[in-house]
Every structure is written in structure tokens, then in C-alpha cells.
């Protein structure tokens, strides 16, 4: 099947009816040119940055350098130890022979376990070294991107929240302008007060919908006139779903609705600008150094007033979250944390039971009528290999949108920050529910009583369960790169959907572009999915070293495949210049600590007296994390003034910078800008306008 997918990709990739370069150029033209220098952290993670093309990506490097030592040393040590009989295999499934190549084959308290102790340290040292190198490399890429002479609107803007009430007789805009002009008299340009755009946005979206319908109706009419010069204009009924109601001329009806909505929009725009101002604003500076400096300064002695951060790109702003107050954001954040914790806990229950139930022995016990089918060797092999993994993948597919919703509910102001937050939640879901949940769930029926009697025994059960699930996770990793990468490369499902839409639904070029648009790389789910594979491979790298080649293949194919997809298929929806990296670094260290604690537990299960030798490892990891945070992280929170002070290739047009931040619903439908002069310039004392 995977060979077929690759062949389909090679055949279909350059066909004009499948791939239209102008679509890509049109979509990518909306992105900053500097995207080619650093497409966020995906270029480091997946090896698409120019400087990283010649080196392995981080995860691949960890597994390659670990495997160089672990495979030739640990496999012979394990396979030549005959202290445990083959009948006492620890694995579940049809791959019991793999036990002979795992740490479970080595006898308890045996001297051969020293080799696995050294291997545990080796994997940790390799990870420390490569993480350090990667952090330095990403910092350099971020610095070069921020030093670009290209003009980026967001570098001249700060986001101000928690603005206190204005004095009597003073407008909100006057309050903001006077506050920042007093602090930055030479570099302050103007401010833009955030407004409640709910109503005006509703009218704007309705207007845009009718414009699309009008363009579609005109295209249908023009097409029909080619075959029949006397063709009738398109018509439709105005009632429910166009099925009932008065029949009208579509083109005339849409034109009338557009004129009506434009008038409503202009009235609502004026009302919004004057009467729906919020306690947040965007403040513009004529120097990007001044904006960067302002974003890092404390502007009020009380932390819940005049809160300032650097502004994201205009396309990233989540306008509804900007006015949320300091304490509201904190409360929302902790409420979301509680919801995530409860969701993880309750999600672990069905995943644990699914893991337990989808083992064939338990499945036959619950559904005896399946026994004749399951007993057939070919079917049994396939079911044992893939049934639990498929059930797990389906469960995980339900999460991303829910986690994105929760992240937005925190009051986060930008799409890139929401993506990072959702990515972190998805990572903890994956590790706790998949790695730990499946590990415990596989022995749930046999170990439930012991955990119930002694809750502290859960750590012992986890350590004892790891070897039993080695083959499950090995086939899980294999399934991910065989099926997942095959579908990713061929994109056969999106291709079929595109052609169906193009043939039966799309009538104008804009609709064809919309149907073709591939979206972005999907950072919120892709990084956690890769981190789950890294967690699995890292935690089993010493217990069952044979899993390392599978990890190498997964990330090696990912480096080749996603490099192509990132550069030639996906269109980035935002640019945050590497701010995802510190989060990835933190997750990788969390994975490393989990691996180290797991190894301590498993050596304890093996009754190996020198096990305390491993106890310093988690402490080393915490110290390493602390050093990295102090040395590198600040630069990813705020731009360094040394970097941002480089000259631009031209003097920025501040009016264009300002207008790029005006929401579409407030800038659309105007016959001219004169009637909105107050919104686009400094207001007078008699006008309380803002944007």
C-alpha cells in the first residue's frame, strides 16, 4: 500500500490539473519574505532550514548517536544471556522472539546490567549535547531573521492591555496618546484603541458571503451564455435553504443585499469606533528599537495596569481576547488547566480500557463468537499487530479542535501562542494517556487489584509493564510511519476532495483556490505526535534497543518528506520566528526525565543493587533545563535590542503599518476615508473615535 502511495505521488505531483503554481504563489505572497529563512521551528525540527540541511534533525541525531553504541553493545549482551527461559517471555503479541534482544532477557541482579546502566548515561549525554547545540542554532536563526532589513509591521507595534479608566472629559485615545507620548516623546507615532467588533463583524461576514454568491451567480450566467446567448439569469428562492419562498433573480437580489449591507456596515462602523472602545490598544512607534524596548519595560507600578507585550502579526490577532483583564486571564488560565487535567484523567479511562479490551485474549473473553475468526493465523497476526494501535489513533484524532478551543478560552492574544499552548496540552495528553495509559492499561485487568490495595504500587506496575508493551509500541511506531507518511506524501484524500469540489461546486477562481488551499503544517498536532514517538523510542531505547532503528526510520522519513511538504505544499498561517522552540525543548527534557525515572524504576524491578547510580540523572536534567532557560529563553520571549537595531533597507511608511492592523470589518465598505478621519488619525477632544 505504501509503495502504491509513493508511486501515485510521483505520477500525480507535477500534473497541471493537480498542482497549480499560481495558487502557491498567490497564497505564499501573503507571508513575510523572511519565512524562507526560518519557517518557525519546523525547519529545525524537520530539517528544512538552510543550515540544517546538512545535518540530521534533532530527534534523528539522538537516536542515531545512541544506536551507534546501544545496538552493537546491548543486543549481544541481552541475546547471549540465557538465565531467563524463553517460556517466560515478557512480551504480548506475535513477536515474542524480540524478547531475546531486550533487557528483559537479562537475569535479575546480573553483572550484565552494568552495560545497560552505562547505556542509560550515554543516551542522556547525547541528548544533552544535541539539545544544547540545537538551542544555539535556533537562537542564531531567530537572530538572523529578526535582523532582516525587510519591513515587518508587527516590529513597530506593542499590545497594551489592562488600560485603566480615563479621566472625566478625556477620551480613551487621548488617555493612551498622552501616556505614551510622555514616556516616548521622540518615537511615539499613534495608537489604535481596540473595539468590540462583534456586531460589525457579523455584518461584514454577511456582506462578504453575498459578494461571493454574486460572483458565483455572475460566473454561472456568463458560462451559460457561451452555449445559449438567450440564457436566463440564475434565480433562487429566498426561503429556507432556497427550497421555499419567493423566486427572485439571483444577481439583482445579491446586488440589492450588498448595497443594503454596505449602508448598515458603515453605520455600525461609526457606532463601533465611537461607543464600543475596550481597555486595550495597539501603540505604534516610528522606530522598531523603541517598540522592542517598550514591550520589555514596566509601565506602571501595579502589575494589573498598562500591561505591555510585543504585538503579533495582524493576521494572528485574536481580537475578542485583547480586552480581557489581567485577573480574568489568570482565572481563565487556571480554569482551563483544571478542565485539561480532568479531561486527561477521564480520557485515560477509555483509552486504558480500549488498550486492555483490544488484546485478543480479552476480546475473545468478552465476545466469544469472534473466536473462530480470531483463531485463523493470518487474521490473528494482523489484528494483534494493528488493532490496538488503530483504536488509539482514532481516540487521539478527536482531541485537537477541543484543545485549540480551550487554549483560546485562556484569553491568549495571538494564533501562534494559541498553537503553542494547544501543542503543550496535546503533548501531555499523548504522554499520559498513550504512553503511561496504554502501559498500565495493557495489564489493567491483572493489576487492578494490587493497585487498589496499594496505590503506591502503580510505579512498580508501570516499570513491570514496560517490557510487556515493547512490541505494542514498536508496531505503533511502524504504523505511524508506514500509514501516516504514505498518506501525508500522496495526500490522496485531499486530492480527491479537491477534484470533487472543483468539478461540482467551484464556479470561480476564488472558490478553486479555496478548495485547493492545503493549510499550514499543523504545528499544534504535528509536534506533539512526533514528541510521542520520541517519548516511546527514548523510554524503550535501553529496555528494547531494537526500537531505535524504527525511530531512525520514522524521523529520517519525516526529514525527507516534511521538508518537501513544508517548502512545496503547506502555506504558513503565521510567523513567530522560532518561538515554538523553547516549548519543544522543554517537552524534550520532560521526555528525557521520564526516560530516566523509568529506567530507575525498571532497574529496581530487576533487583539491581547499584540502581542508585542512576538517581543523579533526573537532577542533572533539571540543572540542564535551568541553565538553558537562563541562557537562551529570554531572547525567545522578547527580541534583543542588539538584533533589532540593524538598519532597514528603506524608511517605513508608518501609515501603511498602521492600516495593516485595522480589522477588515472596520476598513471594508467605505466609499472614502474622509468619513473615518477620526479613526485613522489623532482624535480631537470632541471626537472619541478609535480603531
Task: Give your account of this protein's structure.
It is a single chain. The chain is mainly α and 691 residues long. The chain has two domains: 465 residues, no CATH class; 71 residues, no CATH class. It has 28 helices and six strands. Strands 2-5-1-6 form a four-stranded antiparallel β-sheet. A two-stranded antiparallel ribbon has the order 3-4. Helix 7 runs antiparallel to helix 8, helix 10 packs antiparallel against helix 14 and helix 21 runs antiparallel to helix 22. The longest helix is centred in the N-terminal third of the chain and has 34 residues. The radius of gyration is 30 Å and the shape is globular. The C terminus is likely disordered.
SSE layout and pairing:
Layout (H helix, E strand, L loop, with lengths): L1 H11 L8 H8 L13 H4 L12 H22 L33 H34 L10 E5 L10 H12 L4 E8 L2 H30 L7 E3 L9 E3 H26 L1 E9 L2 H8 L11 E4 L15 H32 L2 H7 L4 H4 L2 H21 L2 H10 L5 H27 L2 H10 L4 H11 L1 H21 L1 H13 L4 H8 L6 H18 L6 H22 L12 H25 L10 H22 L3 H4 L9 H6 L4 H4 L9 H4 L11
Antiparallel strand pairs: 1-5, 1-6, 2-5, 3-4
Helix pairs in contact: 1-18, 4-5, 4-22, 5-23, 5-24, 7-8, 10-14, 10-15, 13-18, 14-15, 15-21, 17-23, 18-21, 18-22, 19-20, 21-22, 21-23, 23-24
Amino acid at each position: 500500500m505504501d509503495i502504491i502511495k509513493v508511486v501515485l505521488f510521483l505520477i500525480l505531483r507535477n500534473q497541471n490539473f493537480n498542482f497549480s503554481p499560481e495558487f502557491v504563489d498567490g497564497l505564499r505572497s501573503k507571508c513575510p519574505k523572511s519565512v524562507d529563512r526560518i519557517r518557525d521551528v519546523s525547519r529545525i525540527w524537520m530539517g528544512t532550514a538552510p543550515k540544517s540541511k546538512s545535518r540530521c534533525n534533532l530527534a534523528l541525531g539522538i537516536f542515531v548517536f545512541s544506536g551507534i553504541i546501544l545496538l552493537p553493545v546491548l543486543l549481544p549482551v541481552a541475546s547471549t544471556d540465557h538465565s531467563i527461559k524463553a517460556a517466560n517471555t515478557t512480551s504480548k503479541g506475535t513477536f515474542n522472539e524480540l524478547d531475546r534482544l531486550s533487557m528483559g532477557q537479562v537475569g535479575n541482579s546480573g553483572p550484565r546490567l552494568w552495560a545497560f546502566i552505562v547505556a542509560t548515561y550515554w543516551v542522556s549525554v547525547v541528548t544533552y549535547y544535541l539539545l544544547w547545540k540545537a538551542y544555539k542554532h535556533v537562537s542564531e536563526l531567530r537572530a538572523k531573521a529578526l535582523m532582516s532589513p525587510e519591513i515587518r509591521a508587527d516590529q513597530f507595534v506593542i499590545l497594551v492591555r489592562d488600560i485603566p479608566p480615563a479621566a472625566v472629559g478625556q477620551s480613551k485615545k487621548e488617555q493612551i496618546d498622552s501616556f505614551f507620548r510622555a514616556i516616548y516623546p521622540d518615537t511615539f507615532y499613534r495608537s489604535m484603541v481596540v473595539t468590540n467588533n462583534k456586531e460589525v463583524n457579523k455584518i461584514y461576514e454577511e456582506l462578504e458571503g453575498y459578494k461571493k454568491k454574486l460572483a458565483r451567480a455572475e460566473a454561472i450566467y456568463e458560462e451559460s451564455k457561451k452555449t445559449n446567448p438567450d440564457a436566463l439569469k440564475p434565480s433562487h428562492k429566498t426561503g429556507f435553504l432556497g427550497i421555499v419562498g419567493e423566486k427572485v433573480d439571483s444577481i439583482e437580489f445579491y446586488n440589492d443585499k450588498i448595497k443594503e449591507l454596505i449602508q448598515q456596515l458603515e453605520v455600525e462602523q461609526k457606532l463601533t469606533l465611537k461607543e464600543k472602545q475596550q481597555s486595550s490598544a495597539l501603540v505604534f512607534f516610528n522606530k522598531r528599537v523603541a517598540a522592542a524596548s517598550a514591550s520589555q519595560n514596566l509601565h506602571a507600578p501595579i502589575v494589573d495596569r498598562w500591561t505591555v507585550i510585543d504585538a503579533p502579526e495582524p493576521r494572528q490577532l485574536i481580537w475578542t481576547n485583547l480586552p480581557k483583564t489581567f485577573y480574568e486571564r489568570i482565572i481563565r488560565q487556571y480554569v482551563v488547566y483544571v478542565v485539561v487535567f480532568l479531561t486527561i484523567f477521564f480520557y485515560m479511562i477509555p483509552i486504558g480500557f480500549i488498550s486492555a479490551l483490544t488484546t485478543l485474549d480479552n476480546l475473545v473473553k468478552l465476545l466469544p463468537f469472534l473466536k473462530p475468526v480470531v483463531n485463523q493465523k493470518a487474521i490473528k497476526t494482523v489484528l494483534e499487530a494493528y488493532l490496538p494501535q488503530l483504536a488509539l489513533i482514532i481516540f487521539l484524532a478527536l482531541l485537537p479542535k477541543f484543545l485549540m478551543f480551550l487554549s483560546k478560552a485562556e484569553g491568549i492574544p495571538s494564533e501562534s501562542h494559541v498553537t503553542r499552548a494547544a501543542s503543550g496540552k496535546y503533548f501531555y495528553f499523548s504522554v499520559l494517556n498513550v504512553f503511561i495509559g496504554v502501559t498500565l492499561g495493557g495489564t489493567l485487568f491483572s493489576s487492578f487489584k494490587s493497585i487498589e490495595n496499594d496505590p503506591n504500587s502503580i510505579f512498580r506496575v508501570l516499570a513491570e509493564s514496560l517490557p510487556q508493551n515493547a512490541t505494542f509500541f514498536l508496531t505503533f511506531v511502524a504504523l505511524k510511519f508506514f500509514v501516516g507518511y504514505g498518506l501525508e506524501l500522496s495526500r490522496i484524500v485531499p486530492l480527491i476532495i479537491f477534484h470533487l469540489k472543483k468539478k461540482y461546486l467551484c464556479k470561480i477562481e476564488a472558490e478553486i483556490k479555496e478548495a485547493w488551499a492545503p493549510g499550514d503544517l499543523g504545528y499544534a498536532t504535528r509536534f506533539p505526535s512526533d514528541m510521542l514517538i520520541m517519548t516511546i523510542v527514548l523510554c524503550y531505547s535501553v529496555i528494547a534497543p531494537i526500537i531505535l532503528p524504527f525511530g531512525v526510520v520514522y524521523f529520517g522519513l519525516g526529514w525527507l518528506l516534511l521538508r518537501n511538504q513544508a517548502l512545496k505544499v503547506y502555506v504558513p498561517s503565521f510567523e513567530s520566528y522560532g518561538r515554538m522552540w523553547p516549548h519543544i525543548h522543554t517537552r524534550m527534557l520532560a521526555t528525557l526525565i521520564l526516560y530516566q525515572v523509568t529506567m530507575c524504576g525498571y532497574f529496581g524491578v530487576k533487583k539491581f543493587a547499584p540502581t542508585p547510580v542512576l538517581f543523579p540523572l533526573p537532577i542533572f536534567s533539571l540543572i540542564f533545563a535551568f541553565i538553558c532557560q537562563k541562557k537562551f529563553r529570554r531572547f525567545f520571549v522578547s527580541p534583543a535590542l542588539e538584533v533589532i537595531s540593524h538598519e532597514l533597507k528603506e524608511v517605513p511608511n508608518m501609515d501603511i503599518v498602521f492600516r495593516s492592523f485595522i480589522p477588515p470589518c472596520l476598513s471594508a465598505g467605505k466609499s472614502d476615508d474622509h468619513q473615518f478621519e477620526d479613526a485613522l488619525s489623532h482624535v480631537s477632544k470632541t471626537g472619541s473615535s478609535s480603531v
